[in-house]
Design a protein that fits this description.
The structure holds two protein chains of two kinds. By secondary structure, chain A is of the alpha/beta class. Chain A is built from 15 helices and ten strands. Chain B has four domains: 120 residues, no CATH class; 62 residues, no CATH class; 57 residues, no CATH class; 195 residues, Uracil-DNA glycosylase-like domain (Uracil-DNA Glycosylase, subunit E, 3-Layer(aba) Sandwich), CATH 3.40.470.10. Classes of the chains: A alpha/beta, B alpha/beta.
Chain lengths: 411, 471
């Protein structure tokens, strides 16, 4: 067989990487190459350089170093028992692709992951070498995200954190039992230990020594993880419970939810379904409520009957409908905490309400100019010139928001 | 009516100066018109009086931020709107906090539009490489922003692409970055840029990172509106990707599970590398990775402390080792121990093992004649050596003889030439290469043996020194 061209390898190894949801390039140190001594810079919130027709942002060159893998995870396209085409980049090829794409302003940097070949240390060692070459030899100041291999040696993780902006380890499935049954070679406890280790290293890197010197920065954009949704039978309550645990225990920047999506050459163990995109979307909304809106996980999943979020309406609206005794809320008086709970008000809108109402009382039209979605907020608020009357307690309020019921197909 | 004419390059600073002067002179917004032009001022316009005094005018920081974005908006009314707000701020300095004021809300919208346009420029400019004329690589791009955003966005590209020269052309303005200096010039029409082979790789990436099972076209177009597509090399693929997505997803769902490839069972049957010594001994005792287990008495594991800084790797167990189950204890081992002691190398502090764990021999009468292990056997047994290396994680490895060198560095060739040098394992652990002590035993010439023994002693001395240095 003729050796594969770079283009063929790129096709195989980017195809193999697309099931990782994260493409974030945000929240790292500000760096620049303005002095001409290198290439690249970082911005606060990252840049999406393109969007694929799946609506996902393309910010990084997201590839696998190799899709050869000795593990047999049922949900994964690269599992050892899959007949997918295999390829392997040399470290030099990854470095060149990253730099040439970067110079043409296609990407913010590199997101490197890999199948596990031979031993975890060997795989991780190659990944670290790529990051080191980019940083040290080529003075690359763009973004690097490394997916670490949980069982790799601590020294390798330590070096990975010096070069990478973000480090991630996937928990893969919401419960240990699911990991055991679908990813038998993976060790959930080992994954958690690795995340704990990253947190400790990151914290240690912030402490000054007795001389006041700062140790080198460790993964300045933090760590993240990914959970596959819909491959096992975990409920949304279980999933969000797991996220809460991960956020609080390991100070994760993000938990990504990835709707289990058909893959080429699927395993017989996991029959393919249409990816539960709506469920994935609701989970992200709930995740935001947990992190930025002061909601507790039990409040969000408490009103769900079977532990799953309502797919027809967003979780904040679902909470408000189930807790109507808090409403209607007087926008001119209510506390920040309560304003954040109004459907249709985002954190920015709430901030604007708070600054503006210091000077004058707010009216209905004012809110439209502040970015509130009044169609949603209307039943839950009162303003100088607006009162919802009986709307707040109307029995048909949910029906006004949910999409009309569809007749089930008989076939 | 007095008119202020603002230049197309340096508009922000010019507006700031003019607005400050006019406000200081007390010119109300309705008595002033603003003109934006690169050419000479309109003949019929009545130029506004030049600033009279440098009277201080203080405005909130948030106004400055707003102004710095809005001056680049395409709306011809932008300067008048900004000046009108500035005029109102003189009496109501807290006005900026009123997020609901209609005039301010309109300016905020314009600010948002400019910020978005700037952001999209940072995202969607696509460079092509030009032929280099000096030491720096050269790139060029053509872009069509919705507002006059090239000037305020150019510093972003200067920060990002500091080590290369680039030019970005827009219909309104051209930005050049050469040897670290930004320079602006008149706009241009779309230039013919040379083909760039990397674009094909980028298109390959774009079409393969797309998951056809998750088609969400509106999510794409809301962030990457069609107006930008004509200058994006990847955009021409989008219609095809959308058209084939459903059938590709259906084909994946419909495909019957295939039989796993033949290598998969073999890989899955491979034991997980042992992570404790008892586990390693247990697994090693059951090893059948190569045929040597059939005739040997036992597999001989390494011995020594697991936190040893030095690992000593010999060739394979001999007659004595095969019986005793311990490495390097036969005649060659005894010779090694004697020379090591003379050289100050502390064997008990090192982890001692063999590249191949079973004894390979041919029986001749009542004796077993040592056979050199072949490449397949060395390769099969490398797995155990790696497992031991994982357990011990030595700082330095001493390889005795060609077999150890082959297992650790990939080749055992030319060991007499390479001895005394330090090479590396695949994962970067340093390996000091030397000969096997049995080589000394085989030398017939006494003088030569004496000389070679001294060289070996010198090797061990250097290793002992390196270990002390590493500790």
């Amino acid at each position: 067989m003729a050796p594969r061209t770079l283009q063929q390898k790129l096709a195989i190894l980017s195809d193999a990487a697309k099931y990782d949801a994260s493409c974030a390039s945000s929240g790292t140190d500000r760096r620049s190459s303005r002095d001409g001594s290198g290439l690249g810079s970082t911005t606060g919130s990252g840049i999406c350089h393109a969007y694929a027709p799946d609506g996902r942002c393309i910010s990084l060159l997201k590839i696998l170093m190799t899709n050869f893998c000795i593990f047999d995870c049922a949900y994964c396209v690269n599992r050892v028992s899959s007949n997918v085409e295999r390829a392997r980049f040399t470290p030099e090829e990854v470095v060149q692709l990253t730099l040439e794409f970067y110079r043409r302003n296609y990407i913010e940097g590199l997101f490197l992951s890999s199948g596990i070949i031979r031993s975890p240390d060997q795989t991780m060692g190659d990944m670290v070498r790529i990051a080191r070459t980019l940083r040290v030899e080529h003075n690359f100041r763009g973004y690097i995200h490394l997916k670490t291999i949980p069982d790799a040696a601590p020294e390798l993780i330590a070096e990975a954190g010096l070069h990478a902006d973000r480090i991630s380890i996937n928990v893969e499935l919401p419960t240990d039992a699911a990991v055991k049954s679908y990813a038998p070679e993976k060790d959930p406890e080992g994954i958690r230990r690795a995340m704990a280790d990253v947190r400790l290293r990151k914290e240690a890197s912030k402490e000054r020594s007795h001389t006041g010197k700062r140790p080198p920065r460790f993964a300045p954009a933090g760590q993240s993880t990914q959970m596959i949704v819909g491959a096992d039978n975990s409920t949304d309550a279980t999933i969000l419970g797991q996220s809460t645990r991960l956020y609080s225990s390991y100070k994760l920047k993000r938990v990504y939810y990835s709707a289990f999506s058909p893959i080429p050459d699927a395993s017989a163990k996991l029959p393919l379904i249409r990816p539960p995109l709506a469920r994935e979307h609701r989970l992200y909304q709930a995740d935001w409520l947990l992190r930025f809106y002061g909601f507790d996980v039990n409040e969000i999943t408490g009103s769900a009957k079977d532990g799953n979020l309502d797919l027809d309406i967003d979780p904040k609206l679902a909470w408000a409908l189930a807790n109507r005794h808090h409403f209607p809320l007087d926008v001119n008086r209510a506390s920040r905490e309560m304003l954040l709970r109004v459907p249709g008000f985002g954190t920015k809108t709430v901030g604007r309400i708070l600054t503006t109402r210091r000077h004058r009382s707010l009216r209905y039209d004012d809110l439209t100019r502040m970015g509130a979605i009044l169609k949603k907020a209307r039943p839950f608020i009162t303003l100088t010139d607006w009162s919802p009357g009986a709307l707040t307690d109307s029995a048909r309020l949910r029906a006004a928001f949910a999409p009309p019921p569809e007749q089930l197909s008989l076939f | 009516m007095p008119t202020v004419t603002l230049p197309t390059i340096g508009t922000e600073a010019a507006f700031r100066d003019a607005a400050r002067a006019q406000a200081a002179a007390g010119v109300p917004p309705e008595a002033l018109s603003w003109h934006f032009c690169s050419a000479a001022p309109d003949l019929f316009a009545d130029p506004a009086p030049a600033p009279t005094s440098g009277a201080a005018l203080t405005v909130p920081k948030s106004f400055v931020e707003l102004m710095r974005a809005v001056v680049w908006h395409a709306d011809p009314e932008r300067f008048a709107r900004l000046y009108a707000l500035l005029w109102r701020l003189r009496d109501r300095p807290k006005l900026m906090e009123d997020r609901a004021d209609p005039a301010l809300a309109r300016l905020r919208q314009m600010e948002k539009a400019v910020r978005r346009d700037k952001h999209k420029m940072t995202a969607f400019v696509r460079f092509r490489e030009l032929e280099a004329t000096g030491p720096r690589r050269r790139f060029a791009a053509w872009f069509e922003p919705s507002h006059y955003t090239l000037e305020p966005t150019a510093p972003f590209f200067a920060k990002r692409f500091g080590d290369m020269d680039w030019v970005i052309q827009t219909p309104h303005l051209t930005a050049h970055f050469e040897n670290g200096e930004i320079r602006f010039a008149e706009g241009a029409s779309k230039p013919p840029l040379p083909e760039d082979a990397t674009e094909e790789l980028w298109r390959t990436y774009f079409s393969n990172i797309f998951n056809p099972a998750r088609l969400k076209v509106s999510a794409m177009t809301s962030e990457m509106p069609k107006k930008y597509w004509k200058n994006l090399p990847e955009a021409e693929l989008i219609p095809g990707l959308i058209a084939s997505a459903q059938s590709r997803a259906r084909a994946m769902e419909a495909a019957a599970p295939t039989l796993p490839p033949v290598f998969s069972d073999r890989i899955l049957a491979m034991p997980k590398a042992p992570d404790t010594r008892p586990e390693l001994h247990r697994q090693l005792a059951a090893c059948t990775r190569c045929p040597l287990y059939k005739d040997a008495t036992q597999a001989v594991p390494g011995e020594g402390p697991l936190d040893a800084a030095l690992m000593i790797v010999a060739e394979q167990p001999g007659d004595n080792e095969d019986l005793a189950g311990r490495p390097l204890v036969g005649p060659a081992g005894q010779l090694f121990d004697r020379i090591a002691e003379e050289a100050g190398l502390e064997r008990p502090a090192a982890f001692v093992t063999n590249a191949v764990k079973h004894f390979k021999f041919t029986p001749r009468g009542k004796r077993r004649i040592h056979q050199k292990p072949d490449a397949g056997e060395v390769e099969a047994c490398k797995w155990w050596l790696e497992a031991e290396r994982q357990l011990v994680k030595p700082k330095l490895i001493l390889a005795l003889g060609a077999t150890a060198a082959a297992s650790l560095t990939g080749t055992g060739k030319g060991i007499t030439r390479r001895r005394g040098s330090v090479e590396q394992t695949e994962d970067g652990t340093p390996v000091y290469l030397s000969v096997h002590p049995s080589y000394l035993l085989r030398l017939p010439d006494a003088a030569l043996r004496e000389a070679e023994t001294e060289r070996f002693r010198e090797d061990l001395r250097r290793v002992a020194e390196m270990v002390r240095g590493a500790a």
